[in-house]
Amino acid sequence: MSLNNILNTKCEWLSGDGPDCDIVLSSRIRLARNLKGIPFPNAGDYRSNNEVLEKIFRVLRKTSFFKKGLVAKLSEMSDLEKQILLERHLISKEHLINRIESGVAISEKQDLSIMVNEEDHMRIQVLKSGFRLDDCWELIDNVDSELEQHLDFAYSPAVGYLTACPTNVGTGMRASIMLHLPGLVLMELINKVMQAVIKLGMTVRGFYGEGSEVLGNLFQISNQVTLGKSEKEIISNLNRVLNLVVEHERNSRQLMRQKNEARLQDRIGRAYGILANAHIISSKETISLISALRMGMDMGYINGIGGGSINELFIVTQPAHLQQSAGELLDAETRDILRAKLIRERLKQK
Amino acid sequence: MSLNNILNTKCEWLSGDGPDCDIVLSSRIRLARNLKGIPFPNAGDYRSNNEVLEKIFRVLRKTSFFKKGLVAKLSEMSDLEKQILLERHLISKEHLINRIESGVAISEKQDLSIMVNEEDHMRIQVLKSGFRLDDCWELIDNVDSELEQHLDFAYSPAVGYLTACPTNVGTGMRASIMLHLPGLVLMELINKVMQAVIKLGMTVRGFYGEGSEVLGNLFQISNQVTLGKSEKEIISNLNRVLNLVVEHERNSRQLMRQKNEARLQDRIGRAYGILANAHIISSKETISLISALRMGMDMGYINGIGGGSINELFIVTQPAHLQQSAGELLDAETRDILRAKLIRERLKQK
Lengths: 350, 350
What we know:
The structure is a homodimer of 350-residue chains.
Chain A: H1 3-7, E1 24-33, H2 46-62, E2 70-73, H3 79-87, H4 93-97, E3 103-106, E4 112-116, E5 122-129, H5 133-150, E6 155-156, E7 160-161, E8 173-180, H6 182-186, H7 190-199, E9 202-205, E10 218-223, H8 231-259, H9 261-277, H10 283-298, H11 307-316, H12 319-326, H13 332-348
Antiparallel strand pairs in A: 1-5, 1-8, 2-3, 3-4, 4-5, 6-7, 8-10, 9-10
Helix pairs in contact in A: 3-12, 8-9, 9-10, 10-11, 12-13
């Protein structure tokens, strides 16, 4: 599969289905792994990093996971292509700006990706639509086991997997859920709930991960602790906490419907009206309005638009995807015009 | 014709036709007239004011102008009914809050109204759709001549008609035009043009006349001088100046279309999208969005909505009209919900 094929294929994790998909956009697990006896990427030199890259690529090309997928060096990609992988959450921002020898492997369905020489030698990621941490774990555990047969991972019996950053030592695992919580935000309960979540040992982030602001009422909640617990314990703990958050969100939406339905419908209606009729729109405004539209759809106020189409809009309206579909680099103003056109057309099809 | 009939009939001046109706909403002329030898309303007492009211009402009831119209005392009307006449620009705010014996006469088409005992004994007003000061003058001159046959007006051969406020002495006439100038506003040329208009002896006001703020890019321009010039001179002077303003507005719209069409379409599209989908909307926001919608219609970006329907929306979405159509008094929040519903329904019919 060429990079171009990847770019022109929908991500499975945006399909808008799976358990609790009215509230949970996607589930994600990543594992940090390093090769024994070789410096971490940022401590290594060209030679050692290149050695890691070649070694890992040889193994990845042999496994079944990427047979119909892509295994490629970042140096072979254009800035736009890398930006698209970022917008699809298949690589991280750090990986994009990294100047050392690095690469990425992406499965055909784009539910599995491996960054080579990001902060660690390998960052293995599984991303799925809906509330499906267990499914993510099943797949990533398989991948990890198979790779371990061919690669010698840095591992200490006392603490577990060794990683470049001490916060990842142990399982090397971070599991996270992207939640859409407009009900809690509108009912002004979000801070209370998030404080509880943090007290229970979780981390809360925005749409683009670490350090990103909360846009469109999208919250990423992940485990803080990677050490001293098994992967399954961490996941079951997350599942327990997140089930409570999902329930709180559902109650808030119900409460809004009962107590202030006009205000709710107004928010949803205006979002739809602007998206379906604007001729210039920024990606920030787009995310915020699509968030309201998604709530309208999930609550039955907007019909005829699928959850998958809405989730996809989050991604295809982003700068690199827009430029990719236009076939050329565009300035911000032209992108805002093109984005509005794309959204109008998609919503007209409903 | 009962007051209820009036309330349920469309105003002719909102029909959205007439010369330059893409820019000129309406033309209006009013004459101030007082009866000789009787104190002005605010200087008079119950007896003298009542005498004026009875005397004028007797004459008005005899004329042909109000045969199918209405001649009624304000004391016989509810607050809501008076508020509706205000929203239709058939009486003034001063007349509404006036506590002295007063009345109003309204023609069947609502293009002619006479306030009795506002600031002067009589304020005769003709209001027509489009740029038609000459037509307004023809009708009001007829009305004035007929009334003069039955009533003895306070008149001085040296200065002309005498009025309660010295600024009206002479012709007692004020002629005004309601203009929709979004092009000049968006191209930031409005201040320059309005300063020129003021230098040429005109007065500029907002949608609700004296002291009102400019809403929805609607500007009322009228003659400042009432003394030392004939009515026809004043009108022809106004026509000359206003033709220039209309031309400037048309050029600005053309320029916007050429230079920044996306921004123009964005403004119009968002206005339409919000109006057609909101569930709560204030009358202020309504006026501003209808203004953009009207521009879109006048410039051919929005089709299938008539100018008359748009102009009518300016009026029927106002508080008293909303309450009238609901058949009950409503609080502000309920009005905002009802207003949004009305607008959604009207725009769906397009």
